[in-house]
């Protein structure tokens, strides 16, 4: 199961010591990914073993996603230059639920091109609690059509109780050509097993030092 676990250290109170502890936990346990704020990517990349299988990831547009596309592009370029191998972009729900609801696809396409040119992974994070099922289905298709490698069901910023049924439904709605990540804070080991059985590729957890 460890190969499917992603650790995130995104608390505003997280110190550099927390980043290093999380880095060591990922290496020692064979976890898939470590996600950190853009500010810390360069420092962690300097100590990232070339032989490591784990991916160093960061978030863009965290936590609400409503930055300008040009801002997200600049942040993405900086993160890639600093050594990030995965970019997780928070969807602009403010644009989606407005007369500009076609813009997220344009933004995703621009970012996908930039990220894939550097042979990095592109993940789109969608705050599913803001979406009814028909809108969620369209949003997932939009992300997939624009070139996302993965979609994720929440940033975890709002700290909602884990809901296995909602998580499974997110996976069921995800297009088959896109990987599925589930924020699994609060999930039990049994929940982890069920999520993997339903085809979730990654289980995302906050790091607790």
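-> sequence recovered:
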């Amino acid at each position: 199961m460890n190969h499917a676990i992603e650790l995130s250290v995104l608390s505003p109170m997280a110190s550099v010591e927390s980043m290093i502890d999380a880095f060591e936990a990922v290496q020692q346990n064979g976890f898939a990914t470590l996600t950190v704020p853009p500010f810390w990517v360069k420092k962690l990349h300097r100590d990232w073993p070339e032989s490591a299988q784990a991916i160093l990831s960061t978030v863009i547009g965290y936590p609400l996603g409503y930055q300008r596309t040009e801002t997200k592009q600049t942040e993405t370029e900086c993160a890639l230059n600093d050594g990030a191998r995965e970019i997780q972009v928070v969807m602009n729900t403010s644009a989606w639920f407005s007369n500009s609801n076609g813009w997220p696809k344009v933004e995703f396409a621009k970012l996908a091109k930039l990220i894939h040119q550097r042979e990095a992974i592109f993940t789109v994070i969608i705050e599913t609690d803001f979406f009814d099922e028909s809108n969620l289905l369209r949003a997932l298709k939009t992300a997939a059509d624009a070139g996302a490698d993965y979609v994720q069901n929440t940033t975890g910023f709002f700290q909602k109780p884990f809901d296995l049924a909602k998580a499974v439904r997110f996976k069921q709605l995800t297009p088959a050509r896109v990987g599925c990540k589930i924020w699994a804070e609060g999930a039990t080991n049994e929940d982890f097993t069920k999520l993997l059985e339903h085809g979730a590729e990654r289980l995302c957890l906050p790091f607790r030092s």
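Residues 2-206 form a domain with the TIM Barrel fold (CATH 3.20.20.70).
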